[in-house]
Amino acid sequence: MVKYPGVAKGLYVASQSGKPALSVVDILERNVQENTTLVQVKIQSGRPHQIRIHLSFIGHPLL
């Protein structure tokens, strides 16, 4: 992942030299009132910031 040039902080794109990363997410508990979900994430590759980037990409940023 590399920062996207000229765009606000926090936007990343896959780089040509990037390595694959796999995260498996299991939902443990949901709280509709607080709009939160407790998850367990198993990472298969251990890349820096992998969990944060994967969850943010699918619209579920970490709190």
Report on the structure:
- The protein has a two-stranded antiparallel sheet with strand order 1-2.
- It has 63 residues and is mainly beta.
- Helices cover 13% and strands 33% of the residues.
- The protein has one helix at residues 50-57, and strands at 2-3, 12-13, 23-31, 36-43.
Strand content: 25-35%
Structural class: mainly beta
What percentage of residues falls in helices of 4 or more residues? 10-25%
The largest beta-sheet arranges its strands as 1-2
- Shape call: elongated
Number of strands: 4
What is the average of the pLDDT values? Answer: 80
What is the distance, rounded to the nearest whole angstrom, between the alpha carbons of the first and last residues?
21 Å
Could you describe the largest sheet, including whether it forms a barrel? 2 strands, antiparallel
Supply the number of structural domains.
1
Give the SSE string: EEEEH
Number of H/I helices: 1
Rounded Rg: 14 Å
The low-confidence runs, each spanning 5 or more residues with pLDDT under 50, are none
Structure, briefly:
With 63 residues, the chain is mostly beta strands. The chain has one helix spanning 50-57, and strands at 2-3, 12-13, 23-31, 36-43. It has one domain (19-63).
